[in-house]
Amino acid sequence: MTELDIALREAKLAAQQLSESWEEINLLYSIGEILGRTVNLDDAARTILNEISETVEAKRAAIYVHDVSSGLLRPIAAIGADITKLQPIAIDNDSSVAATVFRTEQPQLVAEGELESPLESLVRKGAMLSVPIMWTSPTGSVALGVVTLSGRRSSARFTAGDQKLVAAIASQIGTAIQIDHLVKASVATERLAHEMQLAHELQMRLLPSPMVVAPDATCAARVEPALSVGGDFYHLFKLGQGRTGVLIGDVSSHGYQAALIMALTMSAMAIHAQNTDDPALTVSALLASLTDELKQTEMFLSLCYVVIDPDRGELRYANTGHPHAFVVAADGTIERLAATDPPLGLGTAAPHGAKRSWTRGSDLLVLFTDGVSDARDDRGRVLGEARVLDVVKARRAELPQRVVDGVFALVEGHMGRVTPEDDQALVVLRS
After folding, report:
1. If you average pLDDT over every residue of the chain, what do you get?
2. What number of helices (H) and strands (E) belong to the chain?
3. Which residue among 171, 235, 268, 329 is least enclosed by CB atoms within 10 Å?
4. What's the CATH number of domain 3-183, 3.30.450.40, 1.10.10.10, 3.30.590.10, 3.20.20.140?
C-alpha cells in the first residue's frame, strides 16, 4: 500500500468520524431547540424520542420518569407502542431493565433474552439499550428517569457511541424534567397562596363588626393571623335587655385545621348564645357540639365567654383556660377573670361560671390571646402581658378603638420586621 493509499484511507476515516460527530452535534442542538421552545414536558419527550430513535435506528423506545410519591417509573413517551398500554414499573423490580438502570444510575446494554420483563415487552424487541436520566446539582446527581431503546433496524448492535450519545441527550432531558418539576411546584405554591388568601378573606368575614352590639356597648376588635388563616377569633352577641355577650377563643395551633375549629365554634355559638344568657350553660352546649371534632383533630380550645348586664351591674363569665381576660376599672385597677375550667377538649366535665360587679360606662373589658403578649422581637425577647396592660391602663378612658390601636402599635413596634409566630386577637368593650 502506497503512502497515497494510506493518506486517502486516513482522510476517509477522518471524514467518517467527522460526519458521525456532526450528526451527534446536530442532534444535541436539535434537542436543545426542542426543549427551549416546548412548555409541555410530555410533548417535548415524544419529539425527543423520535429524534433519538431516528438517529440510532431503534424501532421501539420509551422515556420513563420517576414518580417520587408512588415509587414508580411512569412512561411519558413511547415509539413503536401505544403509550396508554404501557404500565408503570416499580423501581425495585429486579426483572426490569429500566428499573435496574434507574437504581444503579448506570447505562446498560442488555442482550436478547436477558432481563425480560412483561412490563417492557411492548417497547422491547431483542437487545435493549437503557440509559438513566440524571439531574446534576451542586449537591450531587439524582436519577429522574430512564430512556430505553430496542429493535434496531439494521443488524448492527448498539455501540458505545450510541450509549454516549443517548447519555448526553438524557442529561438534557433531566434538565427539562427538573424544570418541569420546579414549574409545577411554583404553580402549586401560587395556587395554594391564592386559596389561602381566599380562606383568609372568608375567615375575616366570619368575624362580626363591633357595631353589632351598638348602642348597648362600644366595642373594638382586631385579629391578625400568623398564617393566611388561623385559630384566634372573637364573637359578639346582642342578647336583649341591654345585655351583651363577648367571646374570645384560641384554638391550639394555627393554619387550616385551627381555622376549621374556629368556624365551627363561631357557628355553634351563634346558636347557643341565643338560647340562654348563662355563660356556663352556653359553653357547656358548645362543648357538646365540638367534642367529636376536637377529639378527631387532637386539638383543644381555650376561650372566655362574658355576658355583661349593665342594668343589674353584673358581669358573668365562663373561662376555659384563657389567661388574658381582664376588667379595667376607672381608677386603673385591673382584675383578671380567672379560669374556671381547663380548655375545651382536655376534659369532659361541664364548664363552670363566675361573676363580678360591673360599672356601667367606666369599666372596660379587655380580652386578648397569647399571640399578643408573646410577640417576640428579632432577639427573641417576649413583649409580655404587663406591657400590654400598661397601654390599656394608660388609655382606659379613651374609646375602645384607641385602646386597640395603642396595643397593636406596641406589638408591631416590638416585633419590627419579625414575622409573628402565633395568631393575635384583641377585643375591648365598654358597656
Report:
1. 85
2. 9, 16
3. 329
4. 3.30.450.40
Report the candidate in 374, 300, 371 with the shortest Cα–Cα distance to residue 342.
300
pTM over 0.85: no
Residue type, 11: A
Evaluate whether 61 touches 53 at the Cβ level (below 8 Å). Answer: yes
Burial class (CB in 10 A: 0-12, 13-18, 19+), 142: middle
pLDDT band at 113 (very low <50, low <70, confident <90, very high): confident
Domain with residues 196-430, CATH architecture: 4-Layer Sandwich (3.60)
| Secondary structure (DSSP) of 125-171 | SSSEEEEEEEEEETTEEEEEEEEEEEEESSSPPP-HHHHHHHHHHHH
pLDDT digits (tens, 9 = 90+) for 339-354: 999 999 998 788 999 9
Checking if the pLDDT of 32 tops 80, the result is no
Q: At what angle do helices 41-56 and 160-206 cross, to 10 degrees?
A: 180
Q: How far apart are CA 70 and CA 137, in angstroms?
A: 23
Start-end of H helices in 236-326 = 256-272, 279-297
- The order of strands in the sheet holding 325-328 is 218-224, 424-430, 364-368, 325-328, 334-336
- The Cα 340–Cα 353 span in angstroms is 7
Task: Give the span between the Cα atoms of 402 and 154, in whole angstroms.
Answer: 87
CB 269 within 8 A of CB 307: no
Gap between the Cα atoms of 243 and 310, Å rounded: 7
Residue for grid cell 440509559:
131
> What is the Cα–Cα distance from 221 to 204, expressed in whole angstroms?
12
- What are the start and end residues of each CATH 3.60.40.10 domain in the chain? 196-430
Which residues are 357's β-sheet partners?
A: 314
C-alpha cell at 258: 385551627
Separation CA 329–CA 81 (nearest Å):
83
Render pLDDT for 264-298 as a digit per residue (tens, 0 to 9). 898 899 999 999 999 999 999 999 999 998 888 88
Strands 72-79 and 58-67: antiparallel
**Above pLDDT 90, what percent of the chain?**
56
